[in-house]
Specification:
Blueprint lengths: L1 E4 L5 H12 L3 E6 L8 H10 L3 E5 L8 H5 L4 E4 L13 H20 L4 E5 L29 H20 L3 E6 L1 E3 L12 H7 L5 E2 L3 E6 H13 L7 E4 L3 E3 H12 L9 E2 L2 H8 L3 H6 L12 H7 L6 H14 L12
Parallel strand pairs: 1-2, 1-4, 2-3, 4-5, 5-6, 6-10, 7-9, 8-12
Antiparallel strand pairs: 9-11
Helix pairs in contact: 1-2, 1-7, 4-5, 6-8, 8-12
């Protein structure tokens, strides 16, 4: 069976392509531009697994190409969605392509008779905009968009639009809602969610802010997409994909224990809030991270574990595998010499 994966060159989508090829599915991936898209790493995976992989041109902001993209596909994984490194000046720069792009894909899938669409949503659509940060959130919860930033609003509105379309059209839909995603890179394109580890490994973060997330390994997330596609009972369900809350300093400590003996200068001390606030005035990416300061993210993935048999690897493994891949791809300095 053939599966369409949207935004195939993205961090999450690339691992989804690998998961499908490894399990014997034919894969068609969408890219915005066939001439400029770097798909070398994906073709290497297809060659290694002996899988069938092809690419088509389709952009979430335009109708052209989507009918051809879904033609002959049994399933669609809609993974592509903008994830900013900074807040846009106009929230509609994120909201419009997220909502309209999702509906564009779903309409094409419905018209082509696709069996099921697996939508990559986010915990941003579940656990934000609430006053109580000490409670544990589940698939029954929805983010209150009246008090959240543009990215969170875009993910929430896009998923709500998808469920509304599925209800009205009869299209079979499953949503997967991941937390902050870590795990090994397949190429040199560093996802926004991995910037913290890159800065720690490069020695550019001597003190660590009090921010944290419910995390998931990208490989486990890809496997959950497959389970959500294959399980008949998953139709019409949302699935939280996130483990325990992990503070950034905990991640730094894992890296320090592993890499300081090799000469990496990895900071583990606490960063004062005032310092992070000052840095955020000149660094938009830090301004975005500031919204997570001292905020607990407590979620339950019991539903995915119970209904689909899904499991997650330890966060320590995800963090170190991320760092190793950055070394291998030259995104951080090679292992320094030990100093006496």
């Amino acid at each position: 069976m053939k599966v369409l994966v949207t935004g195939a060159t993205g961090f999450v989508a690339g691992h989804c392509v690998e998961e499908l090829l490894t399990h014997g599915y034919q894969v068609r991936g969408t890219v915005r531009n066939l001439r400029t898209a770097d798909v070398t790493h994906l073709r290497a995976i297809a060659e290694r697994t002996g899988g069938e992989l092809e690419f088509v041109e389709a952009d979430l902001t335009a109708d052209a190409g989507w009918a051809e993209a879904v033609a002959g596909c049994a399933y669609v994984w809609h993974v592509a969605s903008p994830f900013p490194s900074r807040q846009p000046r106009d929230e509609h720069e994120l909201i419009t392509p997220a909502v309209d792009g999702t509906l564009r894909v779903l309409r094409a899938a419905h018209d082509a008779g696709v069996r099921r669409v697996v939508l990559t949503s986010s915990l941003a659509a579940i656990a934000f905009g609430h006053d109580d940060n000490s409670r544990t959130y589940t698939e029954a919860d929805w983010t209150d968009v009246s008090t959240v930033d543009a990215y969170v609003k875009s993910k929430t509105l896009a998923e709500r639009a998808a469920w509304e379309f599925a209800r009205d059209s009869g299209l079979e839909l499953v949503a997967v809602n991941p937390g902050t995603i870590f795990g090994p890179l397949q190429n040199t394109d560093c996802s926004t969610s991995l910037v913290l580890i890159r800065r720690l490994m490069a020695g550019g973060l001597p003190v660590v802010p009090k921010i944290g997330w419910a995390t998931v390994d990208v490989r486990d997330l890809a496997r959950l997409h497959r389970l959500a596609m294959e399980s008949p009972a998953a139709a019409g369900n949302r699935y939280v994909a996130g483990g325990r809350h992990v503070w950034a300093r905990e991640m730094a400590s894992v890296l320090a224990e592993r890499y300081r003996p090799s000469g990496y200068r990895i900071g583990t001390g606490p960063m004062p809030y005032a310092l992070m606030w000052l840095i955020s005035r000149v660094d938009p990416s830090v301004r975005l991270a500031l919204t997570f300061w001292d905020r607990l993210m407590l979620v339950s993935a019991d539903k995915a574990e119970t209904e689909l048999g899904w499991t997650m690897r330890p966060v320590e493994e995800s963090v170190t595998d991320t760092a190793e891949s950055m070394i291998q791809h030259g995104l951080v300095p090679p292992r320094p010499r030990r100093t006496r």
